[in-house]
Amino acid sequence: MNSAHKIRIEDLSKPVLSELQQGAVANAESQEIDLSVDAVLAAAIKNTGLKDFGDEGFKERLAEQLRSTAEDAWMNNFGRMSVFGTKVQQACSRLRVVDALSRHPEINNIEISRPIMIAGLPRSGTTHLLNMLAADTRFRSMPYWESRQPVPAPGEEVTHDQRDPRFQRAVQAYQGSDAMLPLMKNMHDMNPEHIHEDIELLDIDFASYTLEWMAHVPRWRDYYLAHDQTPHYGFLKTMLQVLSYYSGTGVGDAAGGDLAPKQWVTKTPQHLEQLIPLHTNFPDATFLVTHRDPIEVFSSTATLVAYMSRIRNPVIHMSEIANYWLDRIERLLRACVRDQQKLPEDQTMDVVFPEFMANDMLMVRRVYEFAGIIVTPEVEKQLEAYLKANPRGKHGQIVYDIEADFGLKKDALYERFNFYYERYPQLDPRTH
Fold first, then answer.
1. How far apart are CA 28 and CA 16, in angstroms?
2. What is the H or E stretch that residue 263 is in?
3. First CA to last CA across the chain, in angstroms?
4. Which of 234, 353, 237 is nearest to 295 (CA)?
5. DSSP label at 345?
6. Neighbours of 377 (CB within 10 A)
7. Cα–Cα distance for residue pair 151/138, rounded to 1 Å
């Protein structure tokens, strides 16, 4: 029985900011933010002491992202400052990755064999599934603290645990973000140790939909969707090689001594609309595709975006948020319905949300069986320990109400997703 307490965000559309939030927003207004490629790259060069960004094609993508952000008429200076800081961090990571590949070309020889790759809508169980599988220590996965800085700074000891300087920096960042948006962890907890999605790695190539969560950027959405993402998924594979190299307990040869890394398990919702580029670069992967009623996904997603917007938008445009994310979810699902059938049937498994939530351990056993991996008694203990430590609604459960918050009735939305309900009738609430 789930005993998590229920939380209703009463000020979603008209936020009452805390003193901390007010102070942060006010302080940002006095800052001058230069949303230019030159400014981002100059800051990254200054922070790292490196200059080689590798293939310069990324500059066009970064320019589109920054131009799109500048066009967001809703955004305040705090929001612009957040985007700028994020882009600098990604550029720093790119510099360190290029440097690592230059100094250690053997990284390119590391094999990424038979990864398990999860694709599914936001809020459809991808995070829970990933973290359950990652509890099995036979897999290689990526904690959030590592995704923030995949390559350590020169001279830093790589311990790959809580002693790692990158972990300590992530803890400080998490504490700050938790203080600023305390209900984030109730919807999508980004604590440093949780196993994170590989979209952070695509971000280092400035080729993902992440920016859409940070700003109202239809220009960037259209640019991203108009371009073939296959080469950027090749970059993702390179990033998994880099992370595999640095997964030891030392630096240099000690860190990269094992050139037969563990089997990777990863996920990101973006994969749902990039299944062909994903398969092209990872032809021997096992693909787990999660499925949930899109109206429930929308309710959770739109609420999350509206809540995050309180510190970056002086006015919360609820109807625009709703329209944008209804469209975005539809695009993701149409791409999935179009492309999933093109994946090898013996490598692709559906994970249906209601079944997963009814018995997550049973579903994960099915995943292991499908992937041809034995569940040992030790793995059973690891999975059970994870579930015990991470009950659903651990921090309290948000109560979603799209009619009260967004002025939408569920019945009016079902028709829009008939194409998906026809493919997955078990998700259609009108049939049960």
1. 18
2. strand 263-267
3. 22
4. 353
5. G
6. 7
7. 22
Q: What are phi and psi of 254, to 5 degrees?
A: -65, -40
Q: Return the pLDDT at 188.
A: 86
Q: How far is CA 198 from the centre of its chain?
A: 6
Q: How far apart are CA 204 and CA 142, in angstroms?
A: 15
Amino acid making up residue 248? G
Q: Count the domains in the chain.
A: 1
Domain with 253 in it: what CATH number?
3.40.50.300
For residue 288, what are the β-bridge partners?
118, 349
Distance, CA of 75 to chain centre: 22
Are 259 and 251 in contact, with CB atoms under 8 Å apart? no
Residue 140 domain flag: yes
Q: Tell me if 387 is assigned to some domain.
A: yes
pTM listed for this prediction: 0.94
Judge whether 90 and 65 are in contact, CB under 8 Å.
Answer: no
- Whether 281 and 131 have beta carbons less than 8 Å apart is answered as no
pLDDT, residue 221, reads 99
| Token pair recorded at residue 242 | 């880099």
The DSSP 8-state label assigned to residue 358 in this structure reads H
Nearest to 137 by CA among 181, 85, 86, 195: 195
Residue 289 has phi, psi (to 5 degrees) of: -115, 115
* Rounded Cα gap, residues 206 and 345, in angstroms: 31
Report whether 69 contacts 313 (CB < 8 A): no
How do strand 348-352 and strand 286-291 relate by DSSP bridges? parallel
pLDDT at residue 352, as a whole number? 96
Per the domain annotation, does 196 fall within a domain? yes
Specify the DSSP element, H or E, that contains 365: helix 360-371
DSSP 8-state secondary structure symbol assigned to residue 422: H
Helices and strands, counts by H and E, the chain: 21, 7
* Nearest Cα residue to 113 out of 393, 373, 303: 373
The range of the structural domain enclosing residue 349 comes to 6-431
Per the rule left: phi > 0, alpha: psi between -120 and 50, beta: everything else, 35 is beta
Measured distance CA(156)–CA(145) in Å, rounded = 15
Residues of the chain with pLDDT under 50: 1, 249-260
- The whole-angstrom separation of Cα 246 and Cα 153 is 12
Vertex 286, ends 345 and 354: CA angle to 5°? Answer: 80
Q: What are phi and psi of 349, to 5 degrees?
A: -130, 135
- Report if residue 1 sits inside a domain: no
